[in-house]
Amino acid sequence: MTRIHAKSCFFPLPQVLSTTSIRSNNRDKHQIAIRAIPVRTGLYTNANYDDDDQLELHTDENGYLTMAKKTSAAMKRPTMYDVAKLAGVSQPTVSRVLNENDTAVAISEETRSRVLAAIEKLGYRPNVLARSLRTQRTQTIALMIADISNGFYHPIARAVQDVARQRDYEVLISNSDHLYENERHFCQVVSRRPVDGVIMVPIHLTEHEIEDYFGKTQTPVSMLGSHLHMEGVDVVYVDDERATYEATRWMITERGYRDFGFIGVADDLPPGPRRFHGFRRAIDEFGLSFDQRFYVEGDFKMEGGAAAARTLLQSGALPRALFVCNDLMAIGAILTLQEAGVQVPDQVAVMGFDDIPEARIIRPMLTTIAQDPRDIGLKLASALFERLESETPIPTRIFESERRLVIRDSA
Amino acid sequence: MTRIHAKSCFFPLPQVLSTTSIRSNNRDKHQIAIRAIPVRTGLYTNANYDDDDQLELHTDENGYLTMAKKTSAAMKRPTMYDVAKLAGVSQPTVSRVLNENDTAVAISEETRSRVLAAIEKLGYRPNVLARSLRTQRTQTIALMIADISNGFYHPIARAVQDVARQRDYEVLISNSDHLYENERHFCQVVSRRPVDGVIMVPIHLTEHEIEDYFGKTQTPVSMLGSHLHMEGVDVVYVDDERATYEATRWMITERGYRDFGFIGVADDLPPGPRRFHGFRRAIDEFGLSFDQRFYVEGDFKMEGGAAAARTLLQSGALPRALFVCNDLMAIGAILTLQEAGVQVPDQVAVMGFDDIPEARIIRPMLTTIAQDPRDIGLKLASALFERLESETPIPTRIFESERRLVIRDSA
DNA sequence: TGTGGCTATGCATACGAATACATGCATTCG
DNA sequence: CGAATGCATGTATTCGTATGCATAGCCACA
User: Fold this and answer.
1) What is the pLDDT of residues B320-360, one digit of tens each?
2) What percent of chain B has pLDDT over 70?
3) To pair with B333 at 20 to 30 A between CA atoms, which of A64, A203, A297, B239?
4) Same fold yes or no, A135-238+375-403 and A240-371
């Protein structure tokens, strides 16, 4: 979309031609159309013409161009300036009407109503970009979750949105799919596109990287996960080490299982090792032995759980009880075991972690450790907004969100 | 955060004091601190001072203030101007180095490398707000889905993000939860915060409203749903009327069911009535009667399906086969029926619509009509980007996405 | 040696809104 | 009745970037 100033289209008066416009081989029709008409030196119209504009050309009695008006202007969004013109006031006055909180500046009732009428008539909407550029605030927070397909994160997203909307903030949701590359991409995007705050579930990101991306710009951050501790970053965590410990204990003491397997995840997915540690602690405490063959890794997804179960099946032997470090994998594992004719929980008991909606769909219903994702989301968002709204620096805070064992039928 | 220009803090020379600053009862320490030092008329520093800035004040031999320097400046993000200063070039030159595509403007290798080094050293990142304000493009598209908890939408979101990332666009995801209010809110947000394009799954929005929000600004839009037809708006649809028709036919001819129930949704949720229509067409075509008692409404969610099933159970009689207009409700219904001791499919057969992942978790596995949400997402995004990138207007296009009957165990 | 062209860069401005500062007028106060 | 004050508004500037236009230096050509 070439833009041409009317003045640069003038032909017979070289002094108003820029070198650029002489040299350009820009030969579009409007330039030619305007060229046919002489223009007085100094005539300058503020308008820009796009390639597909229809121009209406006015000339004076001597044949000089006096006005070139767009007849087919692609309707541009009205600005405060348009509103101001229509209301017969200045642009800042419009701004003041809109931002009543402007330090005690009064606007007369009459002006206010005229401005509001003009806004209404033009359908004016403030341009958030311009406002943000000026105020250095975007009224936007960014949320990065680890897996949009995992029902665990939905209530978190909802809760964050609820809190944000209440404060008139928008939420930019992003989904990392547990991939380091996506996490980094998120940080990059967010550090270029200023947001006022960040909530995230970092899996692979290191403290150093997070500091790198957000420390410099002082962007408030709150995160889910107990593996990171950073100055000035609020953390919400669930004590999953203890949760798996207690759940494993329960399986041992209440259900009498002694022969365990574990479906975990790679070491670079922090909650996995932590949960395994709690599991292992209980096993060791009871002096049970743990057969390394029964430790298999998945990827937090249903298919990963299914693959892990296939691995176990192929190994020939099965543990009596299987602790799976999240529900999605637990479900994948159960379905695979059942397909292979293995009875759950009679032959293999399965314990999950999260309590996502699907845990109540599968038969047998999944015994699992329930987290409270809505609570997590609310805590994350509240902490962030406290930071956003606080005048004074707030010391790092750590919030624990509760979890509890939900006993159903699978273990 | 009060900002004070150094010049307005001058005390002994009234002529440089603004009326505002004389009158204001702003008595913060920095104003006072600077006031103690005389300033020559005309001295003006470009810097703004925040309340918590530490100032380093320099005076000349006569005791006049010559310089006020921030010592504790909260590190601001560097701008092109900072880069330019460091590299010893002008700001536009930096801009040109960054945007190599700038119409054939050449930059010498030496300058380029100096600029790049400065960028590296300062950790400069372009400010997307400023860029967008200038270019009128945001490199962002907005996506509104109807229910983040419904697995049907996840592949759509992923596909849209995949396409967008490939073109270096960001995606703003929003979730309407099927609520009209949220849909309108989305439109308002998006029409204030300019995005380059919009993809949405409008449920309640009317063509008139959509035209109102996006028509004026010429924002390219593509939508999922066959109930809307708008000039210049691409639509992807699944022929769900026909899909339910065929599936119902199949239940009649292949399974021999004659006595049907239907769990639908309120008339203002368009896909519902459409699906009911296809269902009804098959029923009528085979001359079967349809007992109105067996038509119950839900809300597209699992709990809605459960509630609908409870209504049916309470009514005393049950149909032999139940067509549920989406999987989430179908699953809710099956679980409720099973809880009540009803055998699925032996007493009541259940057919769903969508084929979400949960359809394979529930037992019996859900017989359903599979849509291809990834395909839908790809089509939506491709259509949008074609429009975004096209120089010339593109006529309205309508894409059909395939669906197919997936026969499992529930019907 | 002047003219024109090219290369590499600088200068000025615009995007839309918020805000520091200025001002005209009416009011108040001594 | 003049000076200070407050109200309602206008003017100028700013945010960070992209870009239209200008220009300095060089080279080629006549």
Assistant:
1) 999 999 999 999 999 999 999 999 999 999 999 999 999 99
2) 81
3) B239
4) yes
Per-residue tokens: B381 = 């995004």
Does A134 contact strand C, using a CB cutoff of 7 Å?
A: yes
- The shortest CB-CB distance from B358 to any of A132, A158, A361 is to A361
Query: What distance in Å separates the CA atoms of residue B351 and residue B334, rounded to the nearest whole number?
Result: 10
Domain ranges of chain B: 4-70, 80-126, 136-237+375-401, 240-371
Instruction: Identify the DSSP state of B287.
Output: T
Q: Is B364 on the interface with A (CB under 8 A)?
A: no
Which of strand D's nucleotides are less than 7 A from any protein C-beta?
Answer: 5-12, 14-23
Given this model, what pLDDT does residue B75 score? 61
Q: What is the DSSP letter of A152?
A: T
At residue A22 the predicted structure's pLDDT band, cuts being 50, 70 and 90, is very low
Query: Which pLDDT value is given to residue B189?
Result: 86
- Domain covering A135-238+375-403: architecture: 3-Layer(aba) Sandwich (3.40)
CB-based contact (8 Å) between A191 and chain B?
Answer: yes
B188-204: average pLDDT: 88
Tell me what the pLDDT averaged over chain A comes to. 81
Helix/strand/coil for A143: strand
Q: How far is B297 from chain A (nearest CA, A)?
A: 21
> According to the model, what pLDDT value does residue B386 have?
94
CATH node for B80-126? 1.10.260.40
> Looking at per-residue confidence, does B291 or A217 come out higher?
B291
For residue B186, give the chain A residue with the closest CA. A170
Sequence letter at residue A398: I
CB of A292 under 7 A from strand C?
Answer: no
In angstroms, rounded to a whole number, what is the distance separating the alpha carbons of residues B282 and B347? 22
| Element at A32 (helix H, strand E) | helix A29-35
CA of B290 to C1' of D26 (A): 90
Residue nearest to nucleotide C23 (CA to C1'): B19
- Sheet with B260-265, strands from edge to edge, namely B295-298, B260-265, B321-324, B349-351
User: Do A395 and A355 touch, CB atoms closer than 8 A?
Assistant: no
d(CA A391, CA A384): 13
- Mutation pick from B193, B211, B301, B360 vs chain A, by most beta carbons of A within 10 Å, is B193
SS3 content of chain A, % helix, strand, coil (to 5): 40, 20, 40
Return the CATH class of domain B240-371: alpha beta
Cα–Cα dist B291/B259, whole Å? 8
Tokens of A35: 């060229």
Task: Sort out which chain A residues have CB atoms less than 8 A from B329's CB and list them.
Answer: none
Q: Does A148 touch chain B (CB under 8 A)?
A: yes
Rg over CA atoms, chain B: 32
Average pLDDT, integer, range B263-289: 94
Q: Mind telling me how many Å the CA of B294 is from chain A's nearest CA? A: 24
The neighbour count for residue A35, using CB atoms within 10 Å, is 13
| Residues in Cβ contact with B60 at an 8 Å cutoff, skipping those fewer than 6 apart | B66
Using one digit for the tens of pLDDT, what is the confidence trace for B90-134?
999 999 998 876 555 678 888 999 999 999 998 898 999 999 999
Tokens of A366: 């999944």
Nearest residue, CA→C1' of C10:
B90
Lateral strand order in the sheet of A349-354: A295-298, A260-265, A321-324, A349-354, A367-371, A403-406
Q: Rounded CA gap, A366 and A363, in Å?
A: 7
The residue of A361, A362, A390, A410 whose CB has the most chain B CBs within 10 angstroms, and thus the best one to mutate to test that interface, is A361
Q: What CATH class is the domain B136-237+375-401? A: alpha beta
**Start-to-end CA span in chain B (Å):** 66
Q: Give the nearest partner residue to A358 out of B126, B185, B361, using CB atoms.
A: B361
B352 versus A31: the higher-pLDDT residue is B352
